Amino acid sequence: MSRSCGTSETSRRSSAAGRLGALLSVGLVLFPFATAAQQEAARFQQDPVEQVGARVLVTLAILGVGIVTYSLLKYRGAAVGPVSWGLLIAGAVAFPLLITGVGTILVFERAERVEFCASCHVTMKVFVDDMKNPKSDSLAALHFKNRYIPDDQCYSCHTSYGLFGTVEAKKEGLNDVYKYYTRTFHLPIKLRHPYPNNDCLKCHAGSAKWLASHEDYKDALFSGQATCMQCHADSNPAHILAQNSKP
Predict the structure, then answer these.
(1) What is the pLDDT of residue 242?
(2) Nearest to 233 by CA among 140, 133, 125, 123
């Protein structure tokens, strides 16, 4: 009877190990193809460091799961020696910390993309749709279709310049995500604060084309006595949303 139980236990372990190995193999084979499904225009904007980071993250996750699974199968979760302790610490502490670090960097980077903004479809879809509409004359659409900003268009226009601007944008973004998933937002969506001139001037102020048409009142724009949208809101509003539509 004991031999039968032992044989059955060994068989289950072998079967579990076999399934785990097959899963790891499939993941390693398919993962490189998962990042290849990108738009044609974006293929010139691929960041090789980010792609390597994503593969490192998946590899760490697979190794961490593999080590924990092996430890459970081999030692049944018991720490009976230095090897079992090492495997337990690596699988339960070291790899999770590495995954958290690498994952956080990747998440913050990808949170700047238009696709991330559009994922809050209940609130942001109409804004993203307008920006991508080739027939729209909104400022967002003009910047997008002419590729005045090559990528991360939402983030680039709604983030102030410098490190503090990035920190402030991430903080506001976390607040937006919280309100979205707790359904505590209010429609229609509005800016919390008036759009600052600096977020336009950080790109346009040094351009020869801008100086040629704004020379007479650039000082008023620089000082804040006038706003960019005082002139642009009528002909080219920030967004043109569908009539009677709510985000």
Answers:
(1) 64
(2) 140
DSSP annotation string for 109-137: HHTTSHHHHHTSHHHHHHHHHHHT-TT--
Cβ neighbours around 42 below 10 Å, total: 11
3-state secondary structure of 28: helix
Cis before residue 32, ω within 30 degrees of 0?
no
CA–CA dist 99, 151 (Å, integer) = 27
**Distance (Å, whole) CA 1 – CA 59:** 41
CA distances from 219 to 100, 177, 202, 206, 211 (A): 47, 37, 15, 13, 11
Global pTM exceeds 0.70:
no
Q: Find the DSSP H helices in the chain.
A: 2-34, 48-75, 82-89, 95-110, 114-118, 121-131, 139-145, 153-157, 162-181, 198-204, 208-214, 218-223, 228-235
19: nearest Cα among 56, 61, 96, 73: 73
Residue ranges covered by each domain of the chain? 2-110, 123-235
User: Which amino acid, residue 174?
Assistant: L
Q: How confident is the model at residue 42 (pLDDT cuts 50, 70, 90)?
A: low
